Amino acid sequence: MTGVKICGLTAPGQVEAAARAGAAYVGFVFFARSPRNLAADHAAGLALQVPAGICKVALTVDADDAMLEALLAAVPLDMLQLHGRESPERVAQVRARFGLPVMKALGIASAEDVAGVARYEDAADMLLLDAKAPAGAALPGGNGLAFDWRLLAGKRFSRPWMLAGGLTPETVARAVTLTGAPNVDVSSGVESAPGVKDARKVADFVAAARTASGGEPAPCLR
Ligand SMILES: O=C(O)c1ccccc1NCC(=O)[C@H](O)[C@H](O)COP(=O)(O)O
């Protein structure tokens, strides 16, 4: 059964919808330019509402230690998602310093990008293979763009991984079947407007993801 992460939750009803649908992970975005950006005190309230057993992931972009420290002091979190240009060395440093599992997001647009994933396999606990953001895009992720899933067909990684990028309730089963993804991550594809998750789409997405069988879904590694 494919593990599902619903990313970019911004309100209590959205947390409830993700939990009710059966999401294994929920993501909170901490990036000022994002329509899904949360202040720490708001995120703390949402995180406290997440039922036990669902992994609470903080998405940051090239955050420095001070920002991560402040975030972790304010919000009960289970995992850090690094969605910027963090090097393998920076990923390893964050992992060692903050004591939480780290998922590194990597943009994929070509076979070279897929080959480059290997650089992060020792540093990260989990990998998120996302569509590469177009040049000049305001956001490095959450753009609702898909990449050519055939690039991942038959690929194996030594770390648990998630597929992301432009997935929707209509496409997720095919994406899982083509890539063998054990876990999937979605944001725009289950929204009615940027930052507003639609409970019906969230439920349909989780149900559709579960009809396809990828690899063994990853537990929250905390
Ligand atoms: O969602 C954002 O606003 C965001 C901002 C900065 C970096 C990443 C961001 N989102 C990443 C995600 O929500 C997902 O991990 C992934 O990119 C899939 O997004 P989508 O294509 O919208 O389903």
UniProtKB/TrEMBL annotation:
Pathway: Amino-acid biosynthesis; L-tryptophan biosynthesis; L-tryptophan from chorismate: step 3/5. Its EC number is 5.3.1.24. It is an enzyme of class 5 (isomerase). GO terms for biological process: L-tryptophan biosynthetic process. Pfam families: PRAI (PF00697). The keyword Amino-acid biosynthesis applies. NCBIfam families: PRK01222.1-1. This is N-(5'-phosphoribosyl)anthranilate isomerase. The lineage of its organism: Bacteria, Pseudomonadati, Pseudomonadota, Alphaproteobacteria, Rhodobacterales. The gene is trpF.
